[in-house]
Amino acid sequence: MLRKLLIANRGEIAVRINRTAQALGYRTVAVYSEADAGALHVTEADEAVCLGPAQANASYLNSEAVLEAARITGADSIHPGYGFLSENAEFARACRAAGLVFVGPPEAAIELMASKRRAKEAMVAAGVPVVPGYESARASDAALTDAADALGYPLMIKASAGGGGRGMRLVRQASELAEALTRARSEARQAFGDDELILERAVVDARHVEIQVFADRHGHVVHLGDRDCSIQRRHQKVVEEAPSPFVTPALRQAMGEAAVRAARACGYEGAGTVEFLVGQDRTFYFLEMNTRLQVEHPVTEQITGQDLVAWQLAVAEGRPLPLTQAEIPLHGHAIEARLYAEDPARAFQPQTGTLLRFDAATGEGVRVDTGVRAGDRISPHYDPMLAKIVAWGSDRDQARRRLIRALEDTVVFGVTTNRHFLSRVIDHDLFGQGNATTAFLEQTFATSPCLSPQPPALAELAIAAAILGTDGGAGWSNAGTGAIPLTLASGDTVHHLRLCRHDQALTVTEGDRSHTLTLMSRSRGQVDFIAQGVRQVCQYQLQGDCLYWQASGQTWSVRDLTHQPATTDAPDHGGEVRASMDGAIVEVRVSEGDTVSPGQTLAVLEAMKMEHPLRATGAGVIARIHIQPGDQVGRGQRLIEIRQPEADTTSP
User: Fold this and answer.
1) Which residues are CB-neighbours of 79 under 8 A, at least 6 positions away?
2) Closest Cα to residue 198, out of 289, 95, 118, 278?
C-alpha cells in the first residue's frame, strides 16, 4: 500500500493531484522553486521541499533534486503531472531504481512514444492509420528539404521528441522552409534537448480529436471517450470539449478501438492520450500518444463522473481498472477554456505581474482548476496559464451558456488575460454549430475586434468617475453638489471629466456629452448602480493611482491624473527595440553597424516555453546592442538602438 505521494510539478495540476491524493488518504509532498515559495500548491500539501532557483532547469527539471526531496520526506511514490519530467523515461527509470513508484507508464512506453518517428512506425505495425510524412533518424536539413519537395506543400515540421506546440511549424510554401527548420530545431533543442525533426503532410481544415485510454498491469485496456481539441493557436490547445460534436458514434467506436490497439502495442500502463487528426471526410490519422495526464482531462471527468487521478493511483498500486469498457458511462457535454495571462492585442504575448484580484466564477455545472490566487506574481519562468474553467451541461448548448457566463463573470485584475477573447470564441456561431476546425482561430479571429480591448466609452468612464470621484473611492460623500474635475488616462488617451452629484444621481460630463448614473450601494470592490433604467453591478480594484473595473463581461483600467502636474511629454521609444516581455535572449542576429529593414528579425526572445522574434519597426543602422545570447531581460528593457538613416542630400 502506498502512503506518501510526492507531486513533481507546480501550479493547477499540482493542486488538482494533491486534492485527490489527500481525499484518498495519502500524505502529500510538494516541491517548489524559490519563485514559488508561497504558491498555492505548496501551502496545500502536507510537506514541501525547495528544489532550487526559479529557472526550471535548476528546479522542476532537476531530477536529482526531486529524488532527494522524496528521500528526505520518506515519499514512496511520485506523480509527475504533465510537462516538466512527466514524459522523461530516464526520470521514470531513476524513480524505480530508487525504490519509488512512478505514477505513469513503463519507461519503454515513454521512450517509444516520445519519438514521433518511432511511434509512427509502431502504429503502422499495429494497424493504426498515420498521416503520410517523412521520418528518418537524425535527418539533416538537406534531407528534410528533399523530402518536403517530394511530399508537397502545405506540410508540418514537428520536433520528434516534443509536444505542446514547441518545435512545430506549418510551412505553406518552399520559400518558408529554411527559416521554419531553423526555428523548429532551435525550439526543440531548447525545450527537449533533442532537435530531431520529422515532416508530415498538413491535413487542411482538420479536426484534432483525442481518445483517453487507460491500462493496468493485468492486461486490461479501455478508453473513456473522445475529446475535441480543434480550437488551437500556434498548435497549442485553447478550448477543449467532450464529446466531439463532429464525431459520429461509429467513428467514436473506430477511434476508440484504434487507441486501445495503440496502447497495447507499446505495453502501456496508466493514463494516456492517443491523438488523431480527422479530415472533413471523417478519415482519421494517428498524430501522437501523450504518455501522461492531459491538461484537458477534466472534460472527460465531467462526462464520465470518474476521477482520473484516482484511477492513476489505483493502477500505480497494482490494482485492476475500476471499470470495464461496457461500464464506462458518458453523460452530457463538457467544455474547457484555458485562461492565460496573455495579451490578445499583442499577438498573445505572455504577461507577467501581480494578480491584484482573482475571483473565478462558480455556479451550477462549473468547475475551476487553478494554482493561483490574489497576490501571486505571474513570473516569466513558467507557463502563463492561470486556470482551466470547465462547464458541464446536459447538452452542448447548456455547457456553452454556462461557460460563457463563467468567463464573463470571472474577475482578473493586475495582468492582461485572454478571458474576453475566450468568451467570444465560445459564443461564436461557427463554434456553436460544432463546425470549428484547427484553422478556426486563424481564419476567424486573426483580425477580430475582440482581440483589441475597446477603450472605455463615456458610460464606462462614468463608472470609473463614480468610484474615483467619491472620496477617492473610500466612501460616498454627501458634501455639496459642485462639479468635481477628474483627469483620467486610458492608454494614450487623456479624458478631462467633470463630476456632479445630487443625492444618489451622479452626472459625468466630457466636452458636450454627459452620462448619468444612480448610485445604489457599494461594498468592498463592488459598486451597484442604475444606468438608463438598468440596474447593474461592477467589480473594481484600486491600486495606487490605477483603477481596474469590470462590467458586462469587459475589463478596463485608467490612471487617475487629477492631482498630477500637467505635462505634454510622452515617452519616445523610436529607434529602439525593447523587450516585449520578461525572458531570455536566445539569439542576436545583427551586429553594430548593420543596416536593417522594416520587419527584419534582430533578436529572438524566449519566454514561457516559446520563441518570440524581435523585429525592426523601420529602416536604419544598428547603433548599439545591449544584449547577448543568454541574457535575462525584463519587459520594456532597451535591447537594441537603431539610428535612422540620414537623408541623401547630394545633388543628382
Assistant:
1) 5, 6, 7, 8, 9, 17, 21, 103, 104, 309, 312, 313
2) 118
> Per-residue pLDDT for 608 more than 60?
no
Do 299 and 240 touch, CB atoms closer than 8 A? Answer: yes
Instruction: Kindly report the pTM of this predicted structure.
Output: 0.83
Instruction: Write out the three cell numbers for 635.
Output: 519587459
Rg over CA atoms, the chain: 27
The residue type of 94 is: A
Q: What angle do CA 55, 57, 62 make, to 5 degrees?
A: 120
User: What are 287's three cell numbers?
Assistant: 498524430
Quote the strand ranges of 2-97, DSSP E: 4-7, 27-33, 47-52, 77-79
pLDDT at 279: 93
Domains of the chain (ranges plus CATH)? 4-103 (3.40.50.20), 132-201 (3.30.1490.20), 208-451 (3.30.470.20), 458-560 (3.30.700.30), 576-643 (2.40.50.100)
Residue type at position 593: G
Rounded to whole angstroms, the Cα distance separating 582 from 107 reads 36
pLDDT tens digits, 110-162: 999 998 889 999 999 999 999 889 988 889 999 999 999 999 999 999 998 87
Q: E strand or H helix at 499, and its extent?
A: strand 493-502
Phi-psi region of 190 (alpha: psi -120 to 50; beta: other; left: phi over 0): alpha
Q: pLDDT tens digit string along 254-273?
A: 999 999 999 999 999 999 99
Residue 260 near residue 221, CB atoms below 8 Å: yes
Q: Which of 598, 582, 588 is nearest to 636 (CA)?
A: 582
Sign of CA dihedral 100, 101, 104, 108: positive
Q: What tens digit of pLDDT does each residue of 374-396 get?
A: 999 999 899 999 999 999 999 99
Residue 127 backbone zone (phi > 0: left; psi -120 to 50: alpha; other: beta): left
Whole-number pLDDT of residue 112: 95
**Are 541 and 548 a contacting pair, CB within 8 Å?**
yes
Is 437 within 8 Å of 239 (Cβ atoms)? Answer: no
